[in-house]
Structures are given as structure tokens and as C-alpha cells.
Amino acid sequence: MIARQLQPILRSAARQVPVVVLSGPRQSGKTTLARAALPRHTYISLADPDVRSFAHEDPSGFLKQFRRNVLIDDFHHGVQLLSHVQALVERDERPGRFVLIGSGNYLPSRAAQMPSDRYTVLHLFPFSFSELASRPAVDLSVLGRRPPPSRPPEEADLMETLFRGFYPRIHDRQLDARSWLRNYLRNFVERDLSRHVHVAEVDTFLLFLRMCAGRNGQLLNLSSLASDAGVTHTTVRRWLFALEVNCLVVLLRPHQRSFNKRLIKSPKLYFLDTGLLCVLLRIRTPEELRTHAARGVVFESYVLSELLKARLHHGKEPDIYFWRDSAGHEIDFLIDDGERLTPIEARSGQTIAGGFFTGLEFWRKLSRTREAVLVYGGDRSFRRLGSTVYRWSDI
After folding, report:
1. pTM, whole model, 2 decimals?
2. Could you say which DSSP state residue 331 is in?
3. Residue 200 pLDDT more than 80?
4. Together in a domain, 61 and 136
5. What pLDDT does 304 receive?
6. Which of 53, 225, 286, 354 makes an SS bond possible with 159, Cβ 3.0 to 4.6 Å?
7. Rounded to an integer, what is the distance from CA 303 to the centroid of its chain?
8. Order of strands across the sheet that contains 330-336
């Protein structure tokens, strides 16, 4: 089993609060992680129809049967149980009493009804590259402020890594990535989207999904999406919500530090798994990706996903944005840790070009800060032109 960086965080949370919510995309490894981290917890899944029926018909009786701490999997099928969970932990505040595992982001928003000292929410995404490589995650709080790590040449191939994506089952079982991801998409539409996409809309939704992939890394334009897909603004918003709440995409918000400039206010759309993005873009091989026009934005998705995992898999809020003014000056990603803003540019090229630093140099002059980071597709990490340059596998 590939070690997950969230495991010690999950164990620690289960020793501190009575309710732990573990959420994330389907097939991100939540069940495997929870059972490995908390082997003494009783395990039960609401995916079992008989179990789910009992929970729906007698929620109080269902929960009271567990005298030991319990992992309740597929809890997105039983969010109505939360009020009963809250009532029980008010009488029994034993740490780790309930660990609730659910796909997507439905559960965290529902859990917010509980007092903040009774629960914690953790998010598990598919593997990070550092997990696959059995390395510590990059510490974003010191990114750009310390020399990059000194490591031997990377054995993994960037295009192969991006093409395969990061879903655990592909790596654990050495499966054909494209076949597995196509099945994943089919199951996602059939099982997870029934509340958001009507049966008659499925074909149009799949077209919309590919249109979103074609706009990966771009500013979100609802009018353009609605027009090209032949649907209303309301439908586009409903479908985007479904993609976001199921953790397939993220709408990256612009940072509002203006420096007396007029800023862009629209979010940018990014897919969170590069393998899934390649399937939607109909990229069939790593070799095809190497010369594909979308290689740069696929790489941007990789960098953003790694930054998010570096935060979320350590139990921290992401606090990641982009920055762009009305004149077109832009920073791909901006980390706000409260004390400083760290700009990050992502470039898929294997050879450093002077133009890679243009945005960072503009930002440094504008903000009067020293830290700046470039992540690129090459094989060395070093310092150049006042910026810390990270090879793709070190981020």
C-alpha cells in the first residue's frame, strides 16, 4: 500500500474530536486510508441496501448499535443521520466516536451544522506525485524561501505521469489508465449525477464536459459555455456545481490584492486529475500529449493539483488563488499564507526560456516581494533571476 500523507492527520483528528468527516472524489482512496489508519474502529457501509434501509427507517437505533467507535462509509447516502450523530456526541464526546466517509463535498457543508469543537473535516484527493515517489510533500509555507531540494535525476517521465493521472486504483493494480478513466467517467455520469443531470440531458452534458476540458485553465465564461452547449445559464451553473461538488473540477478564485490596479473577478476552471483531462481532450497516448496544443494547460492542472494536495493532505486550508489585472498581467497561482503572497508560474517546457520569468519579474516589482517560484517540465531545481526554479517532480 502506498502511504498517504493524510494518515497521521486522520489518526490525530480521531484522538481529538468526536466526529471526523473524510471527504474527497470517488475512488481517491478514502476507505483504504480510514481502515488502515483506524483498524480498531468498527466498519460499516451505507452502500449496502439493507444497511441503508435500516439507517433511513430507524436512524437513532442504527447509530446506537455501535458501542465502539465506528467508520461509516458512503455516508453521502445518509446525510440525514447527521442530526442524530450530533445528538449522540452531545452525550458521549469520546474522541473518534464517528468517522464519516463520503464522496464529493456534500458532507462537509452539512456537517457545518455541528458545533465547531465537535468535528473536523479532512479531504483526500488521489495520489500526489510525492506520495507515489515516497517523498515528503513540499512545504508551501517556505516555498521560494529555501533552496530547492537536491535529488538525483527523476526516473519518472512527465508525459507518462500526466497521462496516467493519479487515481489510486490505476497505480495499485497497474491498470490501463485510459480504459479505467473512461469507465470512471461513465460511472460518474450514471451514479453520481442523477440529481443534477436528467436522463434526457446526458448526451448534452457529456458534450458540455468536453467543452469544459477544452477551456481548462481559462477564465470561466458562462455565456460562452451556455451558447456552445446549447443550454441555459441556469443549466450551466447547475452542471458546474455538480462537477465542483464531486471534486472533478475546481473554480480557482482570483486574489483581490489590487496594488491600485483593476483586477479580473471571474474564476478560472481547472480539472483536478490530469489523466481524466487527457481522456476528455481525446489524447490517446503520452507521446500525443508531448506535442499536443493543450500540454501547457494540462501541466498547469498538475501543478495546481499538487499544490492543493500539499495543503489538504496535511489538514490545511488551500489558500491558493490566481492573480490577473485588466491589462493582462497574470500570475498562474498565488499562495496566501496570511503573512506573505508567494507567486508561482507553471511552464511545461523542459528547457528554461527567459520569457518564463516575465510574469514573476512584473509581480516582484509590483509587490516589492522577493519570493517567486517557477515550476517547469525539466529535470533540475535551482535558483535563477531571483526565482526558485523547481523541476516538476519536486513540487
Report:
1. 0.95
2. E
3. no
4. no
5. 99
6. 286
7. 11
8. 320-324, 330-336, 341-347, 373-376, 387-391, 382-384
243 closest CA partner among 212, 203, 219, 207: 212
Give whole-number Cα distances, 127 to 8, 66, 385, 386, in Å.
16, 32, 32, 31
Choose the final residue of a domain: 96, 123, 150.
123
CA distances from residue 332 to 80, 133, 155, 166, 298 in whole angstroms, order as listed: 40, 25, 27, 22, 13
| Furthest CA-CA distance within the chain | 66
Whether 304 contacts 252, CB under 8 Å = yes
Kindly give, in sequence order, each residue whose CB lies less than 8 Å from that of residue 348, ignoring residues fewer than 6 positions away.
158, 295, 296, 298, 299, 376, 377
Instruction: Output the pLDDT for position 386.
Output: 84
Confidence of residue 108 (pLDDT cuts 50, 70, 90): confident
The whole domain housing 155 covers 129-394
Cα distance between residue 336 and residue 359, in whole Å: 17
Quick one: pLDDT at residue 87? 92
Same domain membership, residue 208 and residue 69: no
Per-residue pLDDT of 71-107, as tens digits, reads: 999 998 998 899 999 999 999 899 999 999 999 887 7
- Which amino acid is present at 33? L
Secondary structure of residue 179 in the 3-state scheme: helix
Same domain for 64 and 80, yes or no, is yes
Which residues, in sequence order, are CB contacts of 155 under 8 Å at separation 6+? Answer: none
Q: Distances from the Cα of 208 to the Cαs of 105, 182, 246, 264, in angstroms?
A: 21, 16, 16, 24
Residue 93 lies in a domain: yes
Cα-based distances in Å from 158 to 83, 106, 173, 196, 220:
47, 33, 20, 35, 27
CATH classification of the domain holding 35: 3.40.50.300
**Cα gap 113→121, rounded to integer Å:** 13
C-alpha cell at 243: 462537477
Domain final position from 68, 100, 123: 123
Q: Which DSSP helix (H) or strand (E) runs through 343?
A: strand 341-347
Beta bridge partners of 346: 375
pLDDT in tens, 272-308: 999 999 999 999 999 999 999 999 999 999 999 999 9
